[in-house]
Design a protein that fits this description.
This protein is an alpha+beta fold. The chain folds into five domains: 82 residues, no CATH class; 145 residues, C8orf32 fold, CATH 3.10.620; 117 residues, Carboxypeptidase-like, regulatory domain (Immunoglobulin-like), CATH 2.60.40; 173 residues, no CATH class; 154 residues, Glutaredoxin, CATH 3.40.30.10. 36% of the residues lie in helices and 23% in strands. A six-stranded antiparallel beta sheet has the order 5-4-3-6-8-7. The termini are far apart. The relative contact order is 0.07.
Length: 830
């Protein structure tokens, strides 16, 4: 019988949800009446374990599509029918992977894959689905809004979170249980990553989405994941079986998170003891474990202290920042640090927040890589895989060359009256992101245009386009809502809102409630759905405010720095809430020659309800070595970060309080690293290049005797020219190392490049080899933890296949740094 073990649980909890949203579920139940019994049960499961945002944002037909396909798989596949119900429900039937837009796609993917994987063994099917994914999508960095799996398929690219969402849907479409797992934030570099796990015979296997390897449990991130302090998985069914209870590391709203780190890295138990000012244990305190990434502390797990005031986390062998609070208002809070390589417990005292207003230094140590998975493909498997990858790339690139968004083109030309408001149509598209333009819908854009037109002449063009016409408020899915908003309010109420825009927020707080336990924090309930459900998350409520204001012809936005709701009064934006007024002045100073890149070298955050929320200052400009910030009253934290090559970070922290109307001045301080801290000790995989006769030579042979510098160079490009000029500028110093320098280029023709030729004349001892850069640059760049997409790639080795230092791309001072590194290697040996 379909879902025999969970049938009663699903029906019971579905009844509870019906009572929570009676109006919506009256419509849903009416449509369910025409469905088969198994489909009804599948629908009840999907509706019960969906965040409210999904229930409101998506029509019944979307849920029906996923339910019918899941039932079809269960009925037609004995393999699917034999799956444990918890695996089937969470990792085959479930429509959601993470925070992507939901669009029906499973039947489409199934029809393309079913014959291709027919008759294959389970592991072969997993690999084959990934090759199909590689034929249809590849990596491309984009903004934070997560595309639907269908959109990734159509446009042919996405960031790693979108690629993995796409692949999970493809796997689920043919009955292979799958989920997305991810390092929420790396400890060794400023980034994160998501990939895919697939279940078979009580075991989870992993692979990189749209990056097929010849074998499972292998990806470019195998070593990187062994340096993580946390690897997550998540699901939305709160009925967690006992076997998984110990892996739970947090529950935010409807989302349950699990710790998967022990399958990727060496783990240690980090214990935390929370006490009050009298030294007594504090039970029930919220404890957040955080890593430093992009010069900010990000949470990777959340636990609660027991009756003894203790809690714990199985994490990596490195540093964590730990903060604790007793309640949501964080009247009592505290924080501390732990390096699990040296200590097992961190004790934190809860007190009232009192900034010390002084610089405090901390070392955030990144774990060494200790990969758990060491299986490697054979050379034959690698060569065969490379052939398949090249074939997949040809298929994908052919598709991508022909991709267009017909809805965008229809809107631009005007579907009903060609050319009507052509300038505004183009202006509206220009204010949207590149990603928006690939999946926007004609009916959405047209509704926003038509309902905004009456206000066109009331404001300057730029104000009208950006703050009234613009359909985007934050990172939400673009949707229609203006007609719904106009129909919601009477003429008298709309007139009141136009006269007093803050009254819109008063209406929202009275009529739109929040139900945080029923939501997923990272999802936004769309404005029309918020009005229909009469519930929305605080983030969604802010989006609703801007949507209502713009629909009524009031220029409005969320402040790009603080996220504060604002509307335009005269020619100035003012906060909706008086307490959000930014009447404090903070002046930050830097040295004349110092480079301070925001979210790389430093950040500033405001203390809000127990946690620091970073300000977005990426576009803020320094003037005469000063940065002037208008801020709201409150407590702020400045972090500075100096990440050294081994992945660890030298951190400074400064906390301060700003009272209303107060001005303060602070000089930023970055900690400097010792040269010994700059040395790596990374084992590299062997690689092959060719000499002038075409003979293959291994990297192991080239690096076997002493220290060497490998340069992968591209001709006539500024980053390569820059490092070559630095070598020439220090030719006396480098003359003694010329026999240890190895240039690697793509062809003999590159030797005619004037810059490369000049260096070779100056240093005749340099050896030259050849490589197509197709495999080695990515393989080695990822291994030494630099950006492999930026050339030149430079690796200093201290012995056979042992990297001591690495750089990529444009970096001022690399020539001088390499000399210091070479000298340090020599001194270390002596």
């Amino acid at each position: 019988m379909f879902l025999e073990e969970n049938k009663e649980r699903i029906k019971r909890e579905y009844c509870a949800r019906q009572k929570e949203l009676p109006g919506l579920f009256a419509e849903v139940d009416e449509k369910m009446a025409d469905c088969r019994q198994e489909v009804v049960l599948a629908l009840q499961y999907l509706y019960t374990y969906s965040p409210y945002s999904d229930v409101g944002n998506y029509p019944f037909e979307y849920f029906l599509d996923f339910a019918e396909h899941g039932v079809k798989l269960w009925k037609e596949s004995e393999e699917v029918k034999k799956l444990p119900e918890e695996i089937f429900l969470n990792y085959v039937l479930c429509h959601r992977v993470n925070e992507e837009e939901i669009l029906p796609c499973r039947s489409l993917f199934y029809n393309q894959l079913k014959d291709r994987v027919q008759g294959m063994a389970p592991k072969e099917r997993m690999l084959e689905v990934n090759y199909w994914c590689a034929e249809n999508a590849t990596y491309q960095s984009t903004d934070d809004r997560t595309l639907s799996a269908l959109a990734v398929y159509k446009r042919g690219n996405g960031r790693c979170g979108e690629e993995s969402t796409f692949m999970v849907n493809a796997l689920r479409s043919v009955g292979i249980p799958a989920r997305q797992v991810y390092a929420p934030h790396w400890s060794h570099c400023d980034d994160n990553h998501a990939w895919v796990e697939m279940w078979w015979h009580k075991t989870w296997y992993f692979t990189g989405a749209c990056e097929p390897q010849p074998i499972l449990n292998r990806g470019w991130f195998t070593n990187a994941s062994s340096r993580a302090m946390m690897i997550h998985s998540r699901r939305f069914d709160s009925g967690v079986e006992k076997a998984l209870a110990g892996r739970m590391i947090g529950k935010t709203g409807i989302t349950v998170m699990f710790n998967e780190l022990d399958r990727y890295a060496v783990v240690k138990k980090a214990k935390v003891h929370i006490i009050d000012e009298n030294g007594s244990p504090v039970p029930g305190a919220q404890v957040f474990f955080e890593v430093l990434n992009y010069a900010q502390f990000f949470p990777i797990a959340q636990t609660i202290t027991d009756e003894t005031g203790e809690t714990y986390l199985f994490t990596g062998v490195g540093s964590l920042h730990i903060r604790a609070e007793l309640n949501k208002q964080a009247e009592l809070c505290g924080d501390g640090f732990i390096d699990t390589d040296r200590e097992d417990i961190c004790t934190i005292k809860l007190t009232k927040k009192a900034p010390k207003e002084e610089w405090l230094a901390y070392d955030m140590t990144a774990p060494h890589d200790t990969p758990v998975h060491t299986d490697a493909p054979t050379k034959e498997q690698v060569l065969s895989g490379d052939v398949r990858l090249k074939a997949a790339a040809r298929i994908r690139e052919s598709h991508m060359r022909t991709f267009t968004n017909p809805d965008r083109e229809a809107f631009l030309t005007g579907d009903t009256k060609p050319g009507e408001n052509g300038e505004l149509r183009q202006a509206m598209l220009d204010v949207l992101t590149v990603k928006d333009q690939t999946d926007c819908k004609y009916e959405v854009l047209e509704e926003h245009l038509q309902y905004a037109l009456p206000y066109k002449k009331q404001y300057p063009h730029d104000t009208f386009v950006r703050y009234i016409l613009n359909p985007r408020v934050e990172d939400e899915i673009l949707s229609t809502y203006r007609k719904k908003i106009i129909q919601t309010f009477g003429a008298e109420e709309m007139s009141k809102f136009r006269g007093t825009p803050a009254a819109i927020w008063d209406w929202i707080t009275l009529n739109i409630c929040t139900c945080p336990k029923k939501e997923q924090d990272s999802l936004i309930t769309l404005p029309a759905a918020s009005l229909k459900l009469h519930t929305a998350s605080p983030r969604s409520q802010k989006v609703l405010f801007v949507a209502i204001a713009r629909s009524l012809g009031i220029p409005a936005r969320l402040n790009p720095v603080s996220g504060t709701m604002e509307y335009m009064a005269g020619d100035t934006f003012v906060p909706v809430l008086p307490e959000e007024l930014s009447d404090c002045h903070l002046v930050l100073e830097r040295g004349a020659d110092d480079a301070w890149n925001y979210f790389q070298d430093w950040s500033i955050a405001r203390f809000v309800e127990g946690k620091y929320v970073s300000l977005t200052l990426s576009d803020t400009l320094w003037e005469d070595e000063e940065l002037h910030l208008q801020l709201k009253p409150g407590i702020y934290r400045i972090l500075t970060a100096n990440r050294i090559p081994n992945g660890s970070v030298l951190t400074n922290r400064y906390e301060l309080r700003l009272e209303s109307g107060e001005e303060k001045k602070i000089s930023l301080m970055k900690r400097e690293a010792d040269l010994s801290d700059m040395l790596l000790n990374i084992d590299m995989p062997d690689f092959y290049v060719r000499d002038c006769s075409g003979k293959e030579i291994s990297g192991g042979d080239l690096s076997s005797s002493g220290q060497h510098i490998f340069f992968w160079l591209e001709g006539s490009r500024e980053p390569t020219i820059h490092i070559l000029n630095e070598l020439l500028g220090q030719k006396e110093e480098y003359a003694g190392y010329q026999n240890e320098m190895i240039f690697i280029v793509q062809s003999k023709a590159m030797l005619a490049d004037k810059n490369i030729a000049q260096v070779l004349r100056t240093f005749p001892g340099i050896r030259v080899f050849y490589d197509d850069f197709a495999r080695n640059v990515e393989l080695l760049g990822r291994r030494v933890y630099v950006d492999h997409e930026k050339l030149p790639l430079i690796i200093v080795t201290s012995g056979k296949l042992t990297a001591a230092y690495a750089e990529s791309g444009y970096n001022v001072g690399t020539g001088n740094m390499m000399l210091r590194i070479l000298e340090e290697i020599r001194n270390t040996r002596e």
